[in-house]
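can u pls check wat happens w/ guanosine-5'-triphosphate
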Amino acid sequence: MLYNIFLLKGKNIKDLSQLNIFSYPNDLVTIEKKDLLRNIIYDHDHEELINNCREQNKKSNLQISNLSSTNQYQISEPIPQLIDSLNIYTTCVNQNISIGLIFEKDDNPYDYKDIFLELLHDFLNSESNFSFEDDIEIENLLLTLFIGIRRYGDEIIEKTPELEYHYQEEFFIKVFLFGIDEVGKTSFVRRIKTGKYSDNYFTPTRKFNIEYLQDDAGFLSIWDMPGQRAFREKWLVGLQDSNIIIYMIDIANQRRFKESKRELWKILNRYELNGVPLIILGNKVDLIKNQQNGKTQEEHLYRIKKEIFEFFKFERISNRTWKFMFTSVKTNFQIENTLEKIFELSSYEYESEDFFD
Ligand SMILES: Nc1nc2c(ncn2[C@@H]2O[C@H](COP(=O)(O)OP(=O)(O)OP(=O)(O)O)[C@@H](O)[C@H]2O)c(=O)[nH]1
Ligand SMILES: [Mg+2]
């Protein structure tokens, strides 16, 4: 497991007296030790690290997807080091910045290579105005990397054996769960898997969060997609071979309906998903129940539902069976019903190939 991340910065990174040091989540006292720093920078392969940076222009297109020549920051291949029994993985940005991860002893840093490079690249080069001059931005970078990498470790690496095992099962229903960020997808999966909910659950998702669920009715694998814009291209990988798709909307956040509608239709129009049943969840219904203006809750919800249908143009959904449901992951409203619906709709597909004709 990742337990610390640090960043070393200096005009000349080899000049230890001028080095600026940042680290997260804790100020590692050991990081302040000059010996350790010297070892990180001078000893083990750091020449290689710097040479890698110089070579970056030639190699980058192969190493990191989407890295174009317009990128402000060049990121080198990370190098593993074991120094003073610390398991360190360091990369170099534009030759004068080193970013290092410190893992637990038994971790294999190479497992984290892709996510490390991908997150770093997304953070530095997708938002073109990132500056290493600003300490707050650096702290934010470390925090984001830390959460993303730690979470990736929790979600993917520790689950690999489970994943391989289940892929060999003959029958399971693959659920593709998508929607823009912060609508409640991961909270939903967590709720049906563990029964738990919390307002400040670790968010956002960066990689596929794949959860398995065994129920009397069958076996589900739920692919919970990351909703943030920078990660939406992963949806195209995640949707393959889905038996059912679930689109989640945060009904309390109308400001983002337009964006949400666009993303929904982009995916529904994919030929791979032709005929695949769809459930649309209008989540966070708990947030609107108090604004009733004298109407019963039922009337109020009916009106909202009508508005949503019109706005999202659900009447244009063709070539598949679909269902809209209000939910609240927070209050557990309709969560059990959603699960039933998943089994019900996806079994149509199994039982009757011409169900949609
Ligand atoms: N009030 C309310 N809040 C909810 C509900 N479901 C989720 N939330 C909150 O919404 C926030 C975002 O939830 P997540 O589950 O992380 O959202 P997500 O869709 O997985 O977000 P990404 O991973 O970024 O795509 C969290 O603070 C949740 O606690 C709900 O039904 N009602
Ligand atoms: Mg999520």
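The radius of gyration is 24 Å.
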